[in-house]
Amino acid sequence: MSDVNHGHLPATIEEPIANPGLPPHSWRPTDVDERLAKRAERQVAALFGLSAVCVVLFLVSYFTLKVGDNHTTFAGFGASNIALGSTLGGALLFIGIGIIQWARKLMGDHEIVEMRHPARSSDEDRQGTLDALALGLEESGIGRRPLVRNSLLGSVALLGLPAIVMLRDLGPLPGDKLYSTVWKPRMRVVRDVVGTPINIADLEIGDLVNAEPEIVFAVDEDGEHVLHGAELQTAKSKAAVIVLRMDPKDLTPGKGRENWAVDGIVCYSKICTHVGCPISLNERKTHHLLCPCHQSTFDLADSGKVVFGPAARALPQLPLMVDEEGFLMAQDDFNEPVGPSFWERG
Amino acid sequence: MRLLNRTAGRLSRHRRGRLAGIAMLMLGLGLTGSLYAAFAPAQAEQAESDAALIEEGRELFLVSCVFCHGQNGEGVLTEGGTQYGPSLAGVGAAAADFQLGTGRMPLVQPGAQGAAKSPVFNDEEIAALSAYVGSLGPGPAIPDESDYSLEGLDDEQREEAISRGGQIFLTNCTACHNFSGNGGAMPRGGQAPSILNTSPEHIYEAMLTGPGNMDVFSNGNLTPEEKRDVVAYIETMRDQPEYGGFGLGGLGPVSEGLFAWFVGIGGLVGFAIWIAAHSTRTTKAPMKGTDA
Amino acid sequence: MSIDTSKVADSNATTAATPKKPGKAGVVANWADERLGLGTVMKKNLRKVFPDHWSFMLGEIALWSFVVLLLSGVFLTLWYTPSMGEVEYQGSYNPLRGVEMSEAMASTLKLSFDVRGGLLMRQMHHWAAMIFIASMMIHLLRVYFTGAFRKPRELNWVIGSLLLLLGTLEGFTGYSLPDDLLSGTGIRAADGFMKSMPVVGTYMSFFLFGGEFPGEAIIPRLFTAHVLLLPGLLLALIAAHMLLLVYHKHTQWPGPGRTEENVVGFPMLPVYAAKAGGFFFIVFGVATLMGGLLTINPVWKFGPYDPTKVTAGSQPDWYMGWPDGALRIMPGWESHFLGVTLSWNVFLPIIVLPGLMFTILLMLPFIEAWITGDKRDHHLLQRPRNAPTRTATMVALMTFYGLMWAAGGNDIIAIKLHLSINQITYFMRGAVFIGPVIAFFITRRWCISLQRHDEQKLLHGYETGIIMRSAVGGYSERHLPISDEAAYKLTARDRDETWSPEGETDSNGIPAKGGRLDGLRAKLSTLMYADNVQKPTAEELEDAHHHADHEHEVQAPLEGHAADGHQFDGHHAVDGEALRGDH
């Protein structure tokens, strides 16, 4: 019976049938018949030869098939990629198949036996190590001199602090940046990409406009964009909105939000409150807005409440107003932080 | 002299030939047809596209559409107060042209989202029906081809248009229809369909009229030029070669993962099985020496 | 003084007078050996034995695809610019001309359209990455199902699990580098994940992005992680993994001639080196073919990342699919208390769950060792059916993983199979709990029934398909004994021994102190082996053979007739025999 506690040596397996030992070696036709061996040799050489041909074809394709402005195409595909890929792939594959064929057909295939050794080191090696360790520690005196040991440990532990502290300038502290966007009172709502302001007379019931605050497209006296680069992206990642015109009958304004809509035109943050993907999948008849990332669904007629999915908070709503000419503007910034929730949000 | 000496016999011989009758018939027909085509009044066709077309459309409407849309296109309400078929007053000829042209209308069953299928009506009938629906109330008209083609623009303008169209497409459309126009999921079984096989006219009309659950992108939302740019971009996407090889359905990482597993891992495991498989054995033994 | 020269050779006979000069290879080898002492190291390892089975090559797929990644990756770094600086694209892909984008995206487009072979390398790199992670997973499954993670290989299991985790991170950082719309959306989601962490969330987000999302720092930092930090860690861990493999030697399937103390197979030189080397070329070739013929990550269609743009069907690469699925099916729970917000809806599926799953994965060998109390070295593999509970556990985990993975693709499933995404989500919310339980039970019983079948074969022989009718009219199927090799294979396994607290004694026979968890441990151990079919003892086997002999006696009159089944038993030469004989 094998002993569960006998830790390190592999226990012998009790077998009702004795191990019959390695079966006798059986030969391959290529071992036996010289003709077949020669044929296998030619096969392997042919495979290597095919690989060489593929390399030549690769070089030809590389120098004749164009990319860039006059991209060569073939059967509706980019010719260069297909040609380079199949020739290089073939070159590599044929070498691999050739080597494997060589191993399978021609290399000696006797199974040989090697003995294992226990993973554990021998008892005398262990003893030797323990002795050396004991001697070394004794000579260091660390056991007899606790003051040295403790003060060393203390000072090394302290060294961790510079490593951590030096990372402080990785980034600014969040501060209150997450609580506001670039929206300001009386800032016009403009169409994304083109930057034109939106007049309420332009919109029909069912129109969905992807919009931005006008500062995103503003240019200064020199004709330079006021916001560009990282600043622009950061502004857009919180300030992007969607404007939807629905039948005023369908709208149920939230408490205190009665004047946030203009003639059935509502404006919500485009940034999902789940993890921040932009949303513009609107199901027109139900005015349910679906986020493509994780399928959070918001009801735009009911203050952006969550009706399905993993989002926990309603979509922030932007209070709208119109100027004298009928162009849409924001009354003020959002009344809550836009985008994913965070700890300090409260 | 012989030529001028046309004897009655020679000409008569032709007159009495077997093919003479047919030849005269063909001549007569050809003459009449050409004269008619040259001088037929064009005004008669014009009149066709107005009142007569609308009348034709009305007749078709009465036979095919009133069950759901009402005798005068006013819509049919169910007992529960929900709608069987919506009112068509004010949807415009463009909406009808889109719905009929893509085969979505007539719906296979009410309530379900209409999927594009082969149109039931032919082009003339669609034109007639659209004219009739357009007459029910003011609404978007069927666009002209010049509305959505890039003709008349030089190369640089064309390039700019396609570029801008791409940015508009990515801002307004890909959220539902996916980056290559292959379509996407909507709530409760709805679908934003693939637009890769939709004609430019129908794409324009869909944006203009907002069919089904699609939002409206009226001309006050996306101007006609912007719509034209979007159509141009979609066409470019459709016509451009697949630079990297087979497109795998244009669905993104899901299909890529499937191919990685089935083709990549499947192929490599197949190779591994081949590599480690026992090769053919023979019962014979080698004559001379051992290790081959 | 005359010198006796009679014994001096006066001719060379058959050997050269001067010793042969060492050939070129010999000179080099000598130079190296005099400095590196290679002779000692290589003596043992040149003919090192590696057992041969296709399932042992799955880890090789991972190894060779990693090499492909290194090579193709270096190519890509020659053109890729890890910068988020804004630039107007003026390259050769017309639909994006004039569009503002980051330099990272612009350089990726340059690679794809203006560098010959650039798109091939990009696609090859991405396909190889997918194969890398997939092959690590199937390698993990093979190791687990065959019990190769048991002592002394538990540490290798831990290293392997870490490799899987690092590989996943490497993939994520890698596909985010082009700064295209799809991967940028993924980074946006990652920012949301970080923000959901209690207390430190916003700080982590601001520190990583160098300010508010998206900032300018994230792409260069991901680049450093992707080409320096993670590959360094990966290489170190791969080296450790291989070192342990060489030290412990590879496990092998039990069979004739194989024992716990030996390893039977082919030598490193030439066969194993050829097979492994050839496989390297095959993996490289397959990755290249895929890169040339199958489009992957067509970033020009996505366009540059913009926080206001998104595409339907936004998924991460497949290996992040299962946390994405968990995120999608999670209900929208959030707690507000004491002026703070705790977003359970993000924190649980994306931070807690993967951490938990990974910890379970790491601990699997130790949990099993604790339950079974097995402290022996194991070098022989187990068939999955002979460890039903272990197999069932992994199948249950796989079911959980697979359902989460499918949930991550719920919108694609919805449009392709015409289902409602809402219904799919509701279904998955229940299925991820019920499915693994059902899978566990089914798998376990299936393994046990396979064990029963094996026992039948051992005791009664195999079914020949020949139906015998006895003199009195009863029908029975004729069984013939299986060959010795096959019988040995079926019995070359340990007997399962339930752990019990009383059994724990040290080498001096002093019983161990009882721990608090002993009762639980004993119960789990019993459950682990419950219903397992143990191999028969020698006596049982004898009895069965006697019984079989008796049966044969009864059927002796039928011996020698055609189709008595002896054609199939492997003990008789049957050349020239027809199955039906003269009848």
Number of helices of chain C: 19
Whole-angstrom Rg of chain C? 32 Å
| Alpha-carbon distance between the two ends of chain A | 65 Å
The end-to-end distance of chain C, rounded to whole angstroms, is 100 Å
How confident overall, as mean pLDDT of chain C? Answer: 90
Core attributes:
heterotrimer; A: 346 residues; alpha+beta; Rieske Iron-sulfur Protein; 2 domains; four-stranded antiparallel beta sheet; 7 helices; 32% helix; disordered N terminus; B: 292 residues; mainly alpha; Cytochrome Bc1 Complex, Chain D, domain 2; two-stranded antiparallel sheet; 12 helices; 3% strand
Provide a concise account of the structure shown.
The complex is a heterotrimer of chains A (346), B (292) and C (583). With 346 residues, chain A is an alpha+beta fold. Chain A has 7 helices and 13 strands.
Topology (SSEs and partners):
The complex is a heterotrimer of chains A (346), B (292) and C (583).
Chain A: H1 29-32, H2 34-64, E1 73-74, E2 77-78, H3 79-105, E3 112-115, H4 123-140, H5 146-158, H6 160-165, E4 189-191, E5 208-213, H7 229-239, E6 241-245, E7 265-269, E8 281-283, E9 288-290, E10 297-299, E11 305-308, E12 320-322, E13 328-330
Antiparallel strand pairs in A: 1-2, 4-5, 5-6, 6-7, 8-9, 9-10, 10-11, 12-13
Helix pairs in contact in A: 2-3
Chain B: H1 8-15, H2 20-39, H3 43-64, H4 66-69, E1 76-77, E2 83-85, H5 92-101, H6 123-135, H7 145-148, H8 155-172, H9 174-177, E3 184-185, E4 191-192, H10 200-209, H11 224-239, H12 253-276
Antiparallel strand pairs in B: 1-2, 3-4
Chain C: H1 24-36, H2 38-45, E1 49-50, H3 58-77, E2 86-88, E3 100-102, H4 103-113, H5 118-145, H6 154-176, H7 181-195, H8 201-209, H9 218-248, E4 262-267, H10 268-293, H11 299-302, H12 321-329, E5 335-337, E6 340-342, H13 344-372, H14 388-408, H15 410-417, H16 421-460, E7 462-469, E8 475-480, H17 484-491, H18 518-529, H19 538-554
Antiparallel strand pairs in C: 1-4, 2-3, 5-6, 7-8
